[in-house]
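Hi W., the adenosine-5'-triphosphate complex you wanted:
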Amino acid sequence: MANENNNFSEIIAHCKEYGYIFPSSEIYDGLSAVYDYGQNGVQLKKNIRDYWWKSMTQLHENIVGIDAAIFMHPLTWKASGHIDNFSDPMIDNKDSQKRYRVDHLIESHAEILAHEGKKEEEFALLKAMEELLAKDDFEGLKKLIEDNKIKCAVSGTCNWTDVRQFNLMFDTQLGSVAGEADKIYLRPETAQGIFVNFLNVQKTGRMKIPFGIAQTGKAFRNEIVARQFIFRMREFEQMEMQFFVKPGTEMQWYNYWKTERLKWHESLGIPAEKLRYHDHVKLAHYANAAVDIEFEFPFGFKELEGIHSRTDFDLKQHQELSKKKLQYFDNELKEDGKPVGNYIPYVVETSVGLDRLFLTVISMSYAEEKWKKEDGTEDSRVVLKIPAKIAPYKLAILPLIKKDGLPEIAKNLMNECKQSFYTFYEEKDSIGKRYRRMDAIGTPFCVTIDHQTKEDNTVTIRYRDTMIQERILLADVKNLVTKKIS
Ligand code: ATP
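Structure:
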């Protein structure tokens, strides 16, 4: 990467060292672009997922959730267009045999141009690429690569194959007899589980348009080039919501969700200046408008969430292939006093990758800090300033020493708090070392129980972000933390 002059490799190492993310099956040297979440990672991931779920379902009375299976009838993917269209143009370097996604190859070159200060050339290249991609002009894309003398990072040559399409779906067999007829797919998006259940939910939930169905779950894509840690994985988790609306009102809802979703990311604690919109030039086969919300990752602004106006494409397709009506009866009265009647709703989709959001939170939270102490010597720390409401542990409870009744007071406090939020108990090492460990895993509050606690029932509370310490009543700890994390 051209501009990886940041702390991305430190962030990846930190995630492993502090139990956030491990390479999958690491003892066998890992599996490319597949990762496991460790003891702290799983908790942060759950908290982010819960925050999304609550804001979508609990806070919107017209949005409900479902949990559809990963395996679906194979015709689902014919109807959705994934069998025919879910592919990326790719190109191979004949000398190194290395395969590239065409857009990634060109974007990497654009980054090099940007790095060299050649802004105009960078923009011209990206504009030409977007136009050629929009027209599926594969010959033109190859020519663009050759004209710009874009080289393979491994062989260093410009000896390229033609540009071809590569389908991203994983397939497997259902049952014990293998054959083309039993081929099923690992879902490449969660959305189709929502579409095929549209009428089930609408009828059993007596939902009235406009309404939404939300879902979180695993999706699988055989990405040609999986890279940048958990940014692009082959197995990942999506949080999607399909909002069903009356035809003709879709642009109004598209704009509504576009604004709402940006606000939501800010409410999670993501700084506004690190977020931006990117409107699509090339629209997917199902969309009549699409925008990405991008975040400034350590390797540049990249897609975090997609908002798409999907028209009635999916429901219409499912209706055609399943031969089951997927219509909504709108009994709202028109001006002539008659009900609006049957129609296939239009859909606005919001789709965010949970793993990408996780990487967003870690990237914005990671900080290496240095400062001068009162005695003039230098001190430093690595801290994860994860917003308190989604941090894995909320409170560390630390008895100053392992005796004199201090652990007992600490454990009582832990028992009082653990019904309400996650606590971490630790009695080994100096207080300074314990604070540093809690900084590194991102625990927002530490409470130290010392001898004075026995005399006046006060404790020292230390705030992670400012490192300020103050004495408060032991009895007030639970309430204070509860308030700060809500
Ligand atoms: P990209 O252009 O980065 O490949 P996309 O436009 O194909 O993404 P969508 O199909 O819109 O992505 O999927 C919605 C969201 O799912 C994305 O915004 C992203 O957060 C997440 N996502 C998609 N592919 C991956 C992946 N391979 N690994 C992790 N998250 C992903």
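The domain at 87-166 is CATH 3.30.40.230 (Herpes Virus-1).

W.
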